[in-house]
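Q&A FORM
Asked by: J.P.
Topic: structure of Carbohydrate ABC transporter permease

PROVIDED:
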Amino acid sequence: MQQIFEVPPRWIPESPTVAAFVEVWGTRPLGRFLINSAIIGLVVTVLSVTLAFFAGYGLSRFRFRGASHLAQFILLTQMLPEVMLVVPYFVIMAKLGLTNTYAALIMAYTSFALPFATWMLKGYMDSIPKELDEAALIDGCSRLAALTRIVGPVAAPGIAVTSVFSLILSWNHYLFALALTNREEMFTFSVGLASFMGEYRTTWNFVMAASLIGAAPLLFATALAERSLVRGLSAGAVRG
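REPLIED BY: S.T.
REPLY: Here is the structure written out as tokens.
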């Protein structure tokens, strides 16, 4: 611990140890924080990607009055600062009795992830030839069957990219989790990590150990989707 504050800093410690990784589990319910973030992150990812899949397909394939305005409105929602929304959202959740619940955080995070996911998947759908849909419809598929059986598998790389970004967004979110939870057993990982920082003392060895532990699930998810990430980012970057 003392080596952290040495000046000049010691880049290579004299006696490396993993004690902080072991002891950090006993100072806070770190496992509970991870479970809370995992539950919220997975539900938000499934909800936002599923809804964005259909929304992105509709914006990409159908031309209707107000389509461009709808797309611009979706983009506009990303420009609103979160700090402007947290107080009214907290008041609504408090009146509904949903503070300290998964539902409040899931709805909040989905509202942030969904517009982003919709734009991501719309861009990827634009790169998929419409002839695939038309061929499926000619062969007797319904529009829904063509979407799920033909377009869906082709769009798998884009779905993987969007899923990873949605998971990262919900996992790292701090402000709404801080405002909507005041019981330690309901803290997400980001709020739990901040609890290691006290008013008079911060245990930096525990902060850094917990940060690495919290980053591990995201690194694992990114590694699983590595090939799809590369294909999805490159294919969704252009249209045609």
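FOLLOW-UP: The radius of gyration is 22 Å.
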